[in-house]
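Worked Example 4.2. Consider the chain below.
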Amino acid sequence: MTGTTAPPAVPSESSSASVRTRGSTSVRDRVRHRLIEHAVSGVHGVRPQSGALPGRALPSVRLAGEPAASDIRIEVAAAWPFDGGELVGDVQAAVAAELWAALGEEPRRIDVRLARVVADRSAAEVAAAYQRRPDAESTPPEPRRAGPKRMAGASTVATLVAIALVAAGVIALRDTLIHLGWIGGAAWCPGVATALGGAHWSWWTWPAAVAVGVIGLALLVLAVAPRRVRAVPVGDAVWVSRDSARAREEMP
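Applying the procedure from the previous section yields the following structure tokens:
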């Protein structure tokens, strides 16, 4: 945003002495920050957001340039649904009007970035809103296989196997440190190796073999089984959970 102002009138000699006795006025950037945040927070569609870390709260304001911080960069959180172009224009106009009214300043540039989208409505309300759209019936339904899916059963098994391997590695490292004499204690791996080396055929061998075969077959099924879709489409590539879909059907 750019603009020009008329040059100030040159004071007379009699008024110059009076001005020197009154002093000068300076505005800190902190004041400009507060004014801009106040103006942005009053724009319809902008939602103030608190951040867990310093500097992550919205709206966020950065000032740069000379003179008088003429370049302004603003990050805001927008309430869904919104018109991006209209929201950015409203923020720029509000900031320019606030600075001109309070300080008589006209910034050279106001950049607005939509950093976050806030959806205050529940998933069921979003689904109902899409269902009420005039073009909802003309929108072809999304194929069910394209929606969000549950975590694969093989992922859970792989996680447990990974944890077991990490535990085995920790035990092996412990026995290595004991063998090097860096720590004290009795090693575990030699005892396990001795017990396995002395194993022989017993009555429980056949049931154990059958159990291992069943476990292997179950793992094979988990590895190739398709993941179940955990959501239902409501239009325009929007998916909601099954519980939200049921809640939508129960809404008046």
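The first strand starts at residue 60 and ends at 64. The CA atoms of residues 127 and 224 lie 33 Å apart. Compare this with Example 4.1 before moving on.
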